From TrEMBL:
<dbReference type="InterPro" id="IPR023186">
    <property type="entry name" value="IUNH"/>
</dbReference>
<protein>
    <submittedName>
        <fullName>Inosine-uridine nucleoside N-ribohydrolase</fullName>
    </submittedName>
</protein>
<dbReference type="Pfam" id="PF01156">
    <property type="entry name" value="IU_nuc_hydro"/>
</dbReference>
<dbReference type="InterPro" id="IPR036452">
    <property type="entry name" value="Ribo_hydro-like"/>
</dbReference>
<dbReference type="InterPro" id="IPR015910">
    <property type="entry name" value="I/U_nuclsd_hydro_CS"/>
</dbReference>
<feature type="domain" description="Inosine/uridine-preferring nucleoside hydrolase">
    <location>
        <begin position="5"/>
        <end position="311"/>
    </location>
</feature>
<dbReference type="InterPro" id="IPR001910">
    <property type="entry name" value="Inosine/uridine_hydrolase_dom"/>
</dbReference>
<keyword id="KW-0326">Glycosidase</keyword>
<keyword id="KW-0378">Hydrolase</keyword>
Length: 322
């Protein structure tokens, strides 16, 4: 039986690939998408999500628009600056045809709360943008964490940041929300940070292989991968250049084949007050003896990724038509 999930997205290029993987892979059933301010304004994230779903022939999957700003702080300039790092990697609108599809009338937070209250099957929650919607659901529904069987988060880093020297974008964008999520007591939390996603980057050859599939998803994935490689080579090149991480899709892939990532069970918290380190995921790797552990593990943290398996899962999904 296909595994059910809800994707919480701030749809730019890697979110789009994650959506296509979740919507098309036979091992998954995408129950719905919720959108949040992040890579671009939430209205653009919603429009991009709808464009992706129509393009791949899955217009029936509901989209619910969510939080337009972080819980506490104005992280982003308003309006977003043209040419900032995020817009260079993602842009406000994906290069897909415009859509007449509309988001559902109920908001993302309401949809999350009501869906999990009514659920008779387990539904994984996969947030791959800032965690504002998830934190708002926790604040409004005291039983929310108990109803969600598993949370798979794309975000954070142990080794480095990609928006500051210390912080990864999704966590930095709403650090108070992220701190709430890690402290909420969900039954199982998996974190897929930059440490893992950079090990599963895709190349121009992979982009060409997607295009050769001859499907709408293959064509779109090829466009997004090529765009990401050009942006990364210009903004934050990876060693050797010519390849780029597809962060969000790796989180989705771990629901299909858990072995696509390798994890350690550790304690994770988020810095919310540091002058230089706000938004940093503080991952306690000091596990030599229990005497050194101040807090119990709360998160399965991915430190490794199987690039070949990741690529095969993407290819299997994108060969399909909706």
């Amino acid at each position: 039986m296909a595994r059910k999930l809800i994707l919480d997205v701030d749809t730019g290029t890697d979110d789009a690939i994650a959506i296509m993987l979740a919507a098309l892979h036979p091992s998954l059933e995408l129950v719905g998408c919720t959108t949040v301010n992040g890579n671009t304004a939430v209205e653009n994230c919603t429009d991009n999500t709808l464009r992706v779903l129509e393009h791949i022939g899955r217009p029936e999957i509901p989209v619910h628009q969510g939080m337009a700003r972080p819980l506490v702080r104005w992280t982003f300039p308003t309006p977003r600056k043209e040419g900032d790092q995020s817009s260079r990697i993602h842009g406000p609108h994906l290069p897909l045809p415009k859509t007449s599809l509309k988001a559902r009338s109920s908001g993302a937070v309401e949809f999350l709360i009501e869906t999990y209250r009514a659920a008779t099957d387990e539904i994984a929650l996969v947030p791959v943008g800032p965690l504002s919607n998830i934190a708002a659901a926790l604040a409004l529904d005291p039983g929310f964490a108990d109803r969600v069987p598993e949370v798979v988060i794309m975000g954070g880093s142990h080794g480095w940041g990609n928006v500051t020297a210390a912080a990864e974008f999704n966590i930095w964008a709403d650090p108070e929300a992220a701190a709430m999520v890690f402290q909420a007591g969900f039954r199982k939390v998996t974190l897929v940070p930059l440490d893992a996603t950079y090990q599963a980057s895709l190349s121009h050859a992979d982009s060409a292989s997607f295009e050769a599939l001859g499907t709408p998803a293959g064509h779109a994935a090829s466009l997004f991968v090529k765009h990401r490689i050009a942006a990364y080579d210009a903004v934050q090149p990876l060693p050797g250049g010519g390849h780029a991480p597809i962060h969000d899709a790796l989180a989705v892939a771990s629901l299909i084949r858990p072995e696509v990532i390798t994890t350690e069970f550790l304690h994770v918290d988020v810095e919310t007050v540091g002058t230089l380190t706000v938004g940093r995921t503080v991952i306690d790797t000091q596990v030599r003896t229990e005497a050194f552990r101040r807090k119990a593990p709360n998160c399965h943290v991915a430190f490794g990724a199987d690039r070949a398996l990741f690529l095969s899962l993407l290819t299997e999904a994108f060969a399909r038509r909706g």
